[in-house]
Amino acid sequence: MFEIKENFALKNHNTFGINAKTKYFVFCNSENDIKEFLNIHKNKDLPLMILGGGSNVLFTRDYEGYILHPKIKGIETIYETKDEIEVRVGAGEDWDEFVGFCVENGWGGVENLSLIPGNIGTSPIQNIGAYGVEVKDVITNVEVIEIDSQKRICYKNEECEFGYRDSIFKRKLKGKQIITYVTFRLKKQPIFKLDYGNLNEKLMEYNEVNLNSIRQAVIAIRESKLPKPEEIGNAGSFFKNPVITKHKADQLKERWPEIPNYKVNNNLVKIPAGWLIEKAGFKGKQMGNAGVHDKQALVLINQGNATGEEIVHLARNIQQAIIILFDIKLEMEVNVI
Ligand SMILES: Cc1cc2nc3c(=O)[nH]c(=O)nc-3n(C[C@H](O)[C@H](O)[C@H](O)COP(=O)(O)OP(=O)(O)OC[C@H]3O[C@@H](n4cnc5c(N)ncnc54)[C@H](O)[C@@H]3O)c2cc1C
């Protein structure tokens, strides 16, 4: 049976540490709990949102509705050969604990995604990625419950419309479905991906290159760059890295010869949003209780008692400055509620 709490404080349920409340918070331990709750929520007297680990949301006010928190646990082997294994994982499992479990078992594919906060059920939504790997590379299917019909639907990888920090769950299906299980295919003879950023260089500090040393190296790099949410409230990268035409990038290079850019295809390039924000002079800046991290300009932080509105105000100021300076519109990666 699901459990409902009224006037529930969200401070410990969002990594920005915003002091907001929700009218109702609903804990669901199983698919049945979710269906039972949806059954009584049918008349939709109040709005409904889903919350996993709260590491990609920003509350700008109290939520006058139901927040459903899927806590479905469990890692079940679907099939196994000498080369690979497929596991079906409950939406409520912690992402990084799952990565640790895979590494301990010698299953490769997610080690580069170590230390990303959040839950399993959220990992496909923005196709989490880091150090040259995206979760779409290992997902075989995503199971959901449709909110209106309470039907179970299983989406195969190719039906998920995965893209850069993007999927069908973030677009067409946003707010319509609750992800309950994700199935991953992992390799027992892993192929390492080490050519991103300074991962290769960091690995020189370890005796051997294996799943465990890659995980440790990724954790060490991330800890040196990103603030820990338990210490400084944040939601990781606040903006997406903008993708612009090559023609526009060439024009920008005339004024900013050092502008970094990464080829997406023959016509498009990706520009690091952190570089743009730093160039616009925002790195380490503070506005009220909101700020821009002094080591990583892409991360907006709660300096203590920031409200969600203060963070959004800072974000809008940054967006405006980037338009004026570079004629580029930065898109928010974080879900502003
Ligand atoms: C310090 C830090 C570093 C980060 N680094 C990275 C990184 O390297 N790469 C990266 O890709 N991301 C990164 N992130 C962002 C974040 O960790 C991911 O987006 C993560 O997948 C969010 O998971 P969550 O469970 O916390 O999602 P939440 O914040 O709880 O939810 C995010 C969105 O998904 C919806 N949702 C949640 N669960 C479900 C469900 N079961 N069914 C349907 N909808 C649901 C919510 O309604 C909301 O719209 C970072 C965040 C932080 C704080």
Number of helical runs? Answer: 7
Question: What is the total tally of β strands?
Answer: 20
Oligomer: single chain
The string of secondary-structure elements, in order, is EEHEEEEEHEEEEEHHEEHEEHEEEHE
Distance between the termini: 28 Å
Low-confidence stretches: none
**How would you characterize the largest beta sheet?**
5 strands, antiparallel
Count of the domains: 3
Would you give the CATH topology of the largest domain?
Answer: Uridine Diphospho-n-acetylenolpyruvylglucosamine Reductase, domain 3
- Rounded mean pLDDT score: 94
Do you know the CATH architecture of the largest domain? Answer: 2-Layer Sandwich
Which CATH class of the largest domain applies here?
Alpha Beta
- Alpha-carbon Rg, integer: 21 Å
Q: How much beta, percentage-wise? A: 25-35%
Q: What topology, given as strand order, has the largest sheet?
A: 6-7-12-10-11
The coarse overall form would be globular
Coarse structural class: alpha+beta
Report on this structure.
This protein has helices spanning 31-40, 95-105, 199-203, 211-225, 246-255, 273-279, 308-326, and strands spanning 3-9, 21-28, 48-50, 57-58, 63-70, 75-80, 84-90, 129-130, 133-134, 139-146, 152-156, 177-187, 233-237, 243-245, 262-263, 268-270, 286-287, 290-292, 299-302, 335-336. With 337 residues, it is an alpha+beta fold. The strands form 6 sheets. Strands 6-7-12-10-11 form a 5-stranded antiparallel β-sheet. The protein contains 7 helices and 20 strands. It is globular, with a radius of gyration of 21 Å. It has 3 domains: 3-70, Uridine Diphospho-n-acetylenolpyruvylglucosamine Reductase, domain 2, CATH 3.30.43; 75-225, Uridine Diphospho-n-acetylenolpyruvylglucosamine Reductase, domain 3; 233-336, UDP-N-acetylenolpyruvoylglucosamine reductase, C-terminal domain (Uridine Diphospho-n-acetylenolpyruvylglucosamine Reductase, domain 1, Alpha-Beta Complex), CATH 3.90.78.10. Flavin-adenine dinucleotide (FAD) is lined by residues 15, 49-57, 70, 91, 116-119, 121-123, 125-126, 128-130, 178-179, 226, 229, 234-236, 335.
